[in-house]
Amino acid sequence: MVNSEPxxxxxxxxxxxxxxxxxxxxxxxxxxxxxxxxxxKGILFMVCLYGMFFTxxxxxxxxxxxxxxxxxRARETTVASFPGALRFLAKVLPATxxxxxxxxxxxxxxxxxxxxxxxxNDMPLPLRDRFPVLHDFDRAPExxxxxxxxxxxxxxxxxxxxxxxxIAGVLNILVIYDALAGPAFGTKAPSGVDGxxxxxxxARA
Amino acid sequence: MNPSLAPFSIYWQLPIxxxxxxxxxxxxxxxxxxxxxxxxxxxxxxxxxxxAVIALVLYALAWWI
Lengths: 205, 65
Hints:
A: mainly alpha, 0% strand, B: 2 helices
């Protein structure tokens, strides 16, 4: 005889796409998971990714997340050099990303990388006298020669430092996806997908 | 380099990186902590073995040449 009563441990409800959670996880790693009620996992993401990103910045003397400045004329020349189909993309993206591709990875860490975009576009910044750290945060080095000399005279640490920041940004893409659609391998159901007994058990009964 | 981080060899950062990357990656695959930790340990072991093999090959090459 077939037992059609629901199984005692129903499967967890199917997770729906959550764009808001994905946006939150982009802004601050793990915030989307916290919003969804997966607090421990959200805190894990936040601690690991921000820990990695800011450790990388500290190891590089806070000089490795930036977009090199470029004047307006040079920007227009760069955009015009792109093939037609990609010209829109070149207008939207900061042109100097081509000379600083690290930022393509760092960008995904969220708001922590936004000051670089503000610095690049000469947006209003907190006053240097009152908030010196915020004023110079993610600012491009003023003298390229000084920067090159610093890199030449250091050990491998500054090179490893930007790798930290890029890995943190790229890992956050997975975190954003986790917030959007749930974990890649899903949540294990204890039995049938709909909470009923699996077919083999039903057949045996 | 930041003076507070100066005394550490950069190679000490390798195990930390392996642990953090495998933990975050595994947490995006599963929701249950048991699964996350198991998957994380598996990834950490595989990454460690992969790097150890490369180190061994480079050491052998350096010794040979």
